[in-house]
User: Fold this.
Amino acid sequence: MAKPGAGCVFCQIVAGAVPAAVVFEDEISLGFFDQRPLFPGHTLLIPKEHYETLADLPHALLEPLFANGQLLARSVERALEAEGTFVAINNRVSQTVPHLHVHIVPRRKGDGLRGFFWPRQKYKDALEIEKFRKSIQETVERLRSGG
Assistant:
């Protein structure tokens, strides 16, 4: 567990020192409304222990955290009669609170969100695709072998 900073508002919510509109809680995670929602019902799911990014989350917490995310995505969709949900995690860049959190946002056709929030681009050519593919594939293999 990374040591939380004194100013981690999500750790303060877990501790009960900062109020939040909680919609889900179990022994490892907490789900509550985002204070600046994209749409009503925009929920954040966090591990109760402080981890900054998905890469920092211990393997043992992956399945229970994402099972809870799946449950919340279904619940948000059904409770709000949404047509779907947008589920996202930011790691460092655009992460306004440096505590791992999963955004679960109710979606409807015509709601104004245009797929992803950033401009899409094409690869220059097949060589560029292969360069990036090979780099990521080699890194996956190194990390899998403990490197």
